[in-house]
Structure of UPF0056 membrane protein:
Amino acid sequence: MFEDLFSQSDIFTSYLSGTTTLFIAAFTSIISVANPLAAMPVFLSLTDRNTDSERINVAKKSSFYMFLVLIIFLLVGTYIMSFFGISLPGIRIAGGLIILRAAYAMLNPDASEKKISDEAQKAAKKKEDISFSPMAMPMLSGPGSIAVVIGLASQAEGFFDLLITSVAILLVAFISYSVLRLAPFSAKYIGPTGMNVITRMMGFIAMAIGVQFILNGISSFFGV
């Protein structure tokens, strides 16, 4: 009897550990590539004539659209790729390459092209609503974030894994909302140097994730 109880306890502990590991991996992967801090300067520039309540509304809608975009790709991204005859190993390798490109841009911000060009920023200032474009896409849920989500979906072993990843996406969206909402205050204390340091740290994590995606794709392709 006691042996059965201990056995069940071990199974539960192992299950809980696996769930926690999956959540941390999903959250770290998405937040490092999305990097909401990098969206802060663009957000401040595009909302410089808005009131505080209008800024909060834009931050709320941008984060919601980000969540919506990533959830859609989490649920149907692999099916879209499969429709075009792309295998799961191919999805993982391609996703890893996209993440590596995004990570390189984060590690070398001066030598890399911006997520949004100066011309696009000028055009965005003329728009009445910037929450979906350019804030949600491509600033918060660009190609790198989408690649991460599709890569995670390709490695999911069932509905529960997708649910855990969805919760991670929700947390990233909430953090993105908080970062944008507090942007006027955070920018004063963090400063350009602090933002560069954080962005490079996120870039290193993103690069490691990209490499891991590629290795997973290669090992899956060869059945290793």
Remarks:
- The chain has one domain: 2-222.
- The two ends are 40 Å apart (CA to CA).
- The chain is about 85% helix and 0% strand.
